[in-house]
Amino acid sequence: MEHILGDDWKIIPAGGSTGAAYYAQSEQKQLFLKRNSSPFLAVLSAQGIVPKLVWTKRLENGDVVTAQQWLDGKALNPEEMQHPEVAKLLSKIHHSTELLDMLLRIDRRPIQASHLLFKTKNKIAEHTNSYTPIEIYQASKYLEQHVSEMVCEKQVVCHCDLDHHNWMLSNNGELYLIDWDNARVGDPAMDIGRILHSYIPMSEWEDWLDHYGMEKSPQLIRRMYWYLLIAAVDNYIWYQKRNRMEEAYSQRMEIKQLLAHIDSDVNI
């Protein structure tokens, strides 16, 4: 990375699982660099969803390096995810036709629930060997029974990784959503469900959805839980395949909890 900026820059890894992100600092400037980031970063920057894009450069090996404004700030904590501005920014993202057009142009085909279920069932068959935990069997049965109900009026750009660490609040009070590598076009219930289930007390779901601009309905809650459930099954298989048994067990318990509450919560 040093040859891109010059000798007066100090570049250090920014962490993360991919090892593709860096902090760059000179005497007068600071930048956040990333190799092969999301192709629609420019649109995200133009809409104020991520910190400002400064430049993009293509390397000789074909890699693309982007430089963004480095802002002092912090990631949101779980309690701060309840702030109305989180709901409003997610709504802005989901209602952006520019983001949707761009993601469709770069061949991110919309997620279809039936195709998602087909792939997950194949994973179950391949990676659970001769023993399938009861929670996985029950989840697979539920997902198949309700896949025909996974119909939404309009698919949108979904971030698909709404952990609180990916929400950044600058020292100037600007809220950003970063790390768009997993973004897909799909049902907004995928993103909404992750936030409501992980961060918002159920008694406040209706208020949160009001800030987002959507009414609570049994059909929405059903879709939310369906996508939460299939994600938990996929996570279980991912951990089990890598012999990370503690995390795999945690996902089994998550599946058990989802199955125990899904029908009663849908009808609240």
UniProtKB/TrEMBL annotation:
The keyword Kinase applies. Keywords: Kinase, Transferase. Residues 14-224 form the Aminoglycoside phosphotransferase domain. It comes from the Bacteria. The keyword Transport does not apply. GO terms for molecular function: kinase activity. InterPro entries: Aminoglycoside_PTrfase (IPR002575), CcrZ_PhaseVar_Mediator (IPR052077), Kinase-like_dom_sf (IPR011009). This is Thiamine kinase-like enzyme. The lineage of its organism: Bacteria, Bacillati, Bacillota, Bacilli, Bacillales.
